[in-house]
Amino acid sequence: MRLHLILSTLAACTGKGDSGAPGDSAAFDPGPSPYSLDDQLTLSDVQALGTHNSSHVQPDAVVHPSHAYSHAPLEVQLADQGVRQFELDIHLHDSLGFQVFHLPVIDEETTCLQLTDCLGALKAWSDANPWHLPLMVWMEPKDEDLDSATEHYISFVDRHDELEDAIVSVIPRGRILTPDGLRGDASTLPQALAEGGWPTLGELRGRFIFAMLDSGNHRAAYLAGSDVLAGRLLFVDADTDADPFAALFKINDAAGNAEEVAARVAAGFVVTSNLRDGPEHSQEEAEAHLAASLAAGAHFLSSDRPAPVDDGRGDWFSAIPGGQPARCNPLHAPSACTAAQIEDLPVY
């Protein structure tokens, strides 16, 4: 398959297979797949839960109502809440490196401050559960918000190589699906998806997909060397199907943009969308929005409430109905697909 060929080529050219990649001490070889449809199902066939601002912890003084929620540590989200997609807000400290939190001063509490610690938590769980779905990790640059007016935080719009280095210092390159790994011999990412689609789940289990959540200066700088992301580690958020770098879309409201989401799904792109289950939303609104987002076909649904919390709003939470913890995408998966063939871990 395409990914295995790309990884084998990378290992031969660089001398870095899974066992030789930075941050890893042993080869990644989980053995034969326990899933009988792993050579048929792909990432397009999946619907899974994600979290928004995944390391967020409610500050002592809440400046804005939308900040009034807390997530469990990343490893708890993985093990106990069935989360398979994460969103990390990225800042660059002038001496401490890349850090993860929402906003300086007003909303900076986090379950893991250093990016390498956040990634380490994800990798430790992945190592212990090698047959999981690929983990999607969106990274949102936040250096244009309050960072410029805050001591020690600086722009990293021209320092993306350092961000990539930080990632591979924890997650071996052989465990990451890169744009080149998807594109193969195609001229563009949309062409690759049209001709071959996403790699199978068998090729992606135990691996990571990183993406940059930006449509401004950071994305432009990251694409400067290649509009198909040749040699790059991260995918980027796309605007249209015609973008040569288009593979992933972040469409914040899948329910309100159902036709667009369905069209992207039909064309083979993977869509992430936010749910409306944060502190400013009611249970009724949250449940209706989740149902409509799932029906629209979004692959990953980012939640502020992936587990019950004691906040006076009841014990409801967002989850993928029938998921184990994920389920088959009703707009794309073949009839033979079952949730147990997507990922068969304890029901959350």
How would you describe what is shown here?
By secondary structure, the protein is of the alpha/beta class. Helices cover 27% and strands 15% of the residues. The chain has helices at residues 2-14, 74-81, 115-128, 160-168, 179-183, 189-196, 201-204, 217-223, 258-266, 283-296, 339-342, and strands at 46-51, 83-93, 97-100, 135-141, 153-154, 208-212, 235-236, 248-250, 270-274, 300-303, 327-328. Strands 1, 2, 3, 4, 5, 6, 7, 8, 9, 10 and 11 form an 11-stranded mixed β-sheet that branches. The longest helix is centred in the middle third of the chain and has 14 residues, at 115-128. Mean pLDDT is 90; it is low at 1-27.
Our estimate of the beta-strand percent is: 5-15%
Radius of gyration from the CA trace? 19 Å
Per the principal axes of the C-alpha atoms, what is the gross shape? globular
Mean model confidence by pLDDT: 90
Q: Could you give the count of β-strands?
A: 11
DSSP summary: helix tally: 11
| Helix/strand structural class | alpha/beta
Which regions have little confidence, pLDDT < 50, spanning 5+ residues? Answer: 1-27
SSE diagram, text form:
Elements lengths: L1 H13 L31 E6 L22 H8 L1 E11 L3 E4 L14 H14 L6 E7 L11 E2 L5 H9 L10 H5 L5 H8 L4 H4 L3 E5 L4 H7 L11 E2 L11 E3 L7 H9 L3 E5 L8 H14 L3 E4 L23 E2 L10 H4 L6
Parallel strand pairs: 1-2, 1-10, 2-4, 4-6, 6-7, 8-9, 9-10
Antiparallel strand pairs: 1-11, 2-3, 2-5
Helix pairs in contact: 2-3, 9-10
